[in-house]
Design goal:
alpha/beta, Rossmann fold, Methionyl-tRNA Fmet Formyltransferase, Chain A, domain 2, 2 domains, 7-stranded mixed β-sheet, 6-stranded antiparallel β-sheet, 8 helices, 15 strands, elongated
Length: 311
């Protein structure tokens, strides 16, 4: 099977490597997003998929415009049989999807039709789901709305973060990608329409999605923290400065009539904050323009006292 692989993020690397490892199919080109300038020195940074493609001496293509005749003609000349799309970051237009001889498939990190969109892993944790999974669909021009080829479930553990769950789903998804390609190769695949009545969305996370509302239950805040690591990060304000919270738990010992957001305890374990229901124990945090640190270390350098309030 002659495959063009579309991918950009770390999540996609597992699938690309798994396809290469099987040695049953030929990746004739890797399409990934453009290099970006990052950091103070504006250093040019490759996508993780491009890094993997370079290591494996694969042909790489980074189109600026998926609709352009240049892009369409370039990919047509490669004469692919199948597109495999994993966390590429852009919706493929209809004219592009018509290029492969068979069709294009996509690996999505949710149990479609639930959580269509760019951030299914984040929202599944934030929304307190206990199950998630991966889905292989036949791509169409509508976002994550194609017919289902394969699907597999996975439990979400209470300690999972979006980072740890992404790694698990990347491995699970890579196995499913191989299974789907084999089914398609042998013409044994089936296409099942998605049930639009149970569809839900998982839009790209915005900065404001990370703001902690202390009048909400401790469990809900805990889910926000573990579901939004790296970006946007669950954050609060202390003395007009932003503090991001990286790790938290619960405190069941302190009884208080304090208002939500009020600090009601501190120890080597961390900082205890009153919420709308229960107490949250902040274990690791990151002060504005600072490094991630244990909450206890933060206490040593700041005059935080009982009764101070996070907003």
């Amino acid at each position: 099977m002659k495959i063009i692989f579309f991918g950009s993020s770390e999540f996609a690397v597992e699938s690309l490597n798994k396809i290469l490892k099987t040695q049953k199919h030929k990746v004739i080109c890797v399409v990934t997003q453009a290099d970006k300038k990052q950091g103070r020195g504006l250093k040019l940074v490759f996508t993780p998929v491009k890094e993997a493609a370079i290591k494996n001496n694969l042909k790489i293509y980074q189109p600026q415009d998926l609709h352009s005749s240049q892009t369409l003609n370039y990919l047509k000349e490669l004469d692919p049989e199948l597109f495999v799309v994993v966390s590429y970051g852009k919706i493929l237009p209809k004219e592009l999807l018509e290029i492969p001889k068979i069709f294009a498939i996509n690996l999505h990190a949710s149990l479609l039709p639930k959580y269509r969109g760019a951030a299914p892993i984040n929202w599944a944790i934030i929304n307190a789901e206990t199950q998630t999974g991966v889905t292989i669909i036949k791509l169409n021009p509508r976002m994550d709305a194609g017919e289902i080829i394969l699907q597999k479930q996975m439990p979400i553990e209470d300690t999972d973060t979006n980072i740890s769950l992404e790694k698990k789903l990347a491995i699970l998804g890579s196995d499913l990608v191989i299974e789907a390609i084999d089914l398609i190769t042998n013409n044994k695949h089936k296409l099942v329409k998605q049930d639009e009545t149970v569809m839900s969305l998982a839009p790209l996370m915005k900065k404001e999605n990370g703001l902690i509302r202390w009048d909400e239950p401790a469990q809900k805040i805990y889910n926000l923290i573990r579901g939004s690591l790296r970006w946007p990060g669950a954050y609060t304000h202390y003395q007009d400065k932003i503090i991001k919270i990286w790790e938290a738990g619960f405190d069941y010992n302190i009884k208080s009539n304090a208002v939500p957001g009020e600090i009601i305890g501190s120890s080597k374990e961390g900082i205890v904050v009153k919420t709308g229901e229960g107490n949250l124990l902040i274990k690791k945090l990151q002060p504005e323009s600072g490094k991630i640190m244990p909450a206890y270390d933060f206490l040593q350098g700041h005059k935080i006292k009982i009764g101070d309030r996070l907003l």
